Automatic annotation (TrEMBL):
Encoding gene, per UniProt annotation: Cni-C03A3.1
Alphabetical UniProt keywords: Membrane, Transmembrane, Transmembrane helix
Entry protein name: Uncharacterized protein
Species annotation: Caenorhabditis nigoni
Superkingdom per UniProt: Eukaryota
Transmembrane parts of this sequence: 59-79, 91-114, 126-144, 179-196, 216-234, 246-265, 277-295
Length: 329
């Protein structure tokens, strides 16, 4: 159980107590089960024989895989933080908003494609059931969790005490805050571009022989909508506990590494990208490097003690002295 400081009636004392987090853990376990159910339904409902009519190409499935990268990051964050106390409402709100936007996009796509005004794949009669069991269930579960997750005055006081203690101990740094803001800003631009201009984005980076239809544009917009989750969470991550900050930046790194690997797979194995994709590929690599650097820096600030740093420093010094002695011999 984690140890936290709780202010009692005495104004001058703060005594450490052990908080029981079994209720929070059980709620998070239930949420994890719901997420697993959604993933299973999602995988079943998005099969090409069940949801659409027509030929399902590799490009359709490849674009859908980009959406999975965000779900992988969210699942990792939920798993790592299930024993860290109450979940952060900012993270829950980001999932509520993103799932609602995804639900709206899916419903509008049904109205557009079913109206015979779009070229390409047609939707089967089971499409609405898929939407209800994936985005609808996801939005419903997150909305309930948002409603049931409440914070008390004592919770806010504990967070303030813990945050103040970090700065008093010299572990506070504005680099972490700026890193989260930079992540939020870049991801917001990324999301807006994919939501607003899916046709231009896909036609620019894909080869001309790939015939694009409404399904490609739909999944491009869904990818942009899912990127709103890290936008909102990163803007509020500076208020998270150190353990949650490390878990969150690790989830962001996991999602971005998945995107980077998909770019490699699509460019050199599927060969669906044009030469213009090199710029996007390099930007994805730079962004992955930035998140890796931020993760290493945040983990070092919070969890690497001075004794460990001294041990590492002594090992480096001894190694350098040993090499210098060999050179003199």
């Amino acid at each position: 159980m984690p140890t936290v400081c709780v202010l009692r009636k005495s104004k001058d004392q703060a005594i450490p107590v052990f908080r029981e987090s079994q209720k929070n853990c059980s709620k998070n376990d239930c949420t994890t089960v719901v997420v697993v159910v959604i993933i299973v339904c999602y995988d079943y409902c998005n099969s090409n024989k069940f949801q659409i009519k027509g030929s399902f190409t590799n490009v359709h499935g490849f674009i859908q895989a980009f959406c999975a990268s965000l779900h992988v990051g969210v699942g990792y964050f939920l798993w790592k933080t299930q024993k860290l106390g109450k979940p952060e409402r900012a993270a829950i709100f980001s999932r509520v908003l993103s799932s609602f936007i995804c639900l709206i996009f899916r419903l509008f796509a049904y109205m557009h494609i079913a109206g015979k005004s779009a070229k390409g794949l047609e939707l089967s009669n089971q499409y609405l059931y898929c939407v209800a069991f994936t985005d609808g269930l996801w939005f419903f579960s997150e909305a309930i969790r948002m409603y049931r997750t409440t914070k008390t005055n004592q919770d806010e006081i504990e967070a303030m005490v813990k945050r103040t203690t970090l700065w008093v101990e010299g572990k506070g740094t504005f680099y972490i805050e700026n890193a989260f803001y930079l992540d939020a800003g870049l991801t917001l631009v990324y999301a807006i571009i994919h939501i607003s201009f899916p046709q231009h984005v896909l036609s620019l980076i894909l080869k001309p022989d790939n015939k694009l239809d409404s399904h490609h544009y739909l999944w491009c917009r869904l990818f942009g909508a899912l990127n709103l989750m890290p936008v909102i969470t990163s803007m509020n991550a500076r208020f998270f506990s150190p353990e949650m900050q490390v878990a969150y930046i690790a989830s962001r790194l996991l999602s971005q590494c998945t995107v980077f690997l998909l770019n490699i797979y699509g460019h050199w194995i599927l060969t669906v990208y044009s030469a213009n994709h090199i710029t996007a590929f390099m930007l994805s690599g730079f962004f992955t490097s930035f998140l890796f650097s931020a993760f290493h820096r945040i983990h070092k600030v919070y969890f690497v003690t001075e004794q460990e740093e001294e041990i590492v420093y002594e090992e480096v010094v001894e190694g350098s002295e040993g090499t210098s002695d060999k050179k003199t011999d």
